[in-house]
Amino acid sequence: MLRVAVVDDEQTEREHLSALLKKYGEAKNETFDIKPFANGILFLTDYQRDSFDLIFMDVDMPYMDGIEAAHRLRKIDTSVVLIFVTNIARYAIRGYEVDALDYLLKPLTYQAFSLKLPKAVSICKRNSTNIITVKTRNSQAIFPISSLIYIESNGHHITYHTEQGDFPAYGTMKDAAVQLPEEMFFRVNSGYIVNLGYVSGYDGSVIFLNGRGQIEVSRARKKDFLEAMTNYHISARKR
Prior knowledge:
By secondary structure, this protein is of the alpha/beta class. It has two domains: 2-129, Rossmann fold (3-Layer(aba) Sandwich), CATH 3.40.50; 131-238, CATH 2.40.50.1020. Helices cover 32% and strands 31% of the residues. It starts with a strand and ends with a helix.
């Protein structure tokens, strides 16, 4: 089951898009858990990373338009699949600013909708199956790779800092890195591996992790870090 948010200020549009999702689900044997939101503010209230797999975002909304809502969303969740819904095609170009996968033009038709959705569903499924299993000191922890913020090492003790909490474990950074996709994670110094999706800023030799603190990049790895960040964002746009 894929969790889908439909953000649109017009009830008829929310209901129409939900109906298209249900029709597609029946035709393709897919199940969607659909939650509607009347505006971007309501959608962002209490939003947590990994709350949804797929988001349909109307562009023209009162209080906060879809572009601004998407910018705020990306500060919280960099990996959720985002599709804009708009009356005006030129607005869709701004989707590159927030790594939107695609856009749909109103009025929505099932034919256009059904052509756009397979790619989004495929990415959602890929994201949902990307999990990591960690043997902690007392048991075992399982969490999505996308929710892993950074890994911290202290000798043979490592800590996985995630959205779900911190998980201390035995092992080495080399062992931890084997489980991680190289395009998504980077070892910034001998003691830290960071999720590039959480990097919100960079100042000299310090990176900022979306309000989760800051970590220093070693001098020898600065150039490679900047290159990794560039490649990460290019890859995100192509998803």
